[in-house]
What we know:
Elements: E1 4-7, H1 13-24, E2 28-33, E3 47-50, H2 56-70, E4 75-78, H3 93-121, E5 124-129, H4 133-136, H5 142-162, E6 167-174, H6 180-183, H7 187-195, H8 205-216, E7 227-230
Parallel strand pairs: 1-2, 1-4, 2-3, 4-5, 5-6, 6-7
Helix pairs in contact: 1-8, 2-3, 3-5
Amino acid sequence: MSRSVLVTGGNRGIGLSVVHAFAAAGDNVTATYRSGEPPAGAPDGVTWVRADVTNSADVDAAFAAAEQAAGPVEVAVANAGVTRDQLVMRMPDEDFSDVLDTNLTGAFRVARRATKGMLRLRRGRIVLVGSVVALTGSAGQVNYAASKAGLVGLARSLAREVGSRGITVNVVAPGFVETDMTAVLSEARKAEILGSVPLGRLATPEEVAGVVGFLAGPAGAYVTGAVLPVDGGLGMGH
């Protein structure tokens, strides 16, 4: 049976691949974007909602749109995120707080709203898109790494709260992925990155979406409170 699925930050990169994957599986997908327009070439039938996850009213409106289009949300994927990279000694307060507000508190807003309907349904899947840097650290990304590390505590605490109602909560932790953000890196920087990845290549967004789909599908029914790396071995041992 098709499910009601909500994906935040679904207009590009990993988020858009997640939207494609759920739509291809026959689910009814609602996806959010913060600015611009819905992407060209998006799957037919997706409900697009302009929403900023730093605004609770926007998050509520996105869920309301999903509920109107397809019924109570059964799968919520918190993918929306930003970066503001800078060495810590030069990082202004707002660059730290803005990244945490979007990446961590935004995911909290999504998870909080998702659980309202899922608790009534007595089932649901919540997937938070984290990062390998949450576990390994990354120079120049204290804000981003802190926000993604916070997702682990959020997911595991919430998993304990709602597990008895048939709701799972997990984190997918991608490594370096072929997206707009990595496309602007110099060839020297890309070579440096690939030198630290045992598989010797970047991930595709579709590979990350596949793991999200696993956690949201029948095979992932007994997985909760987990952090699943999709990083080519970059973060092994952490």
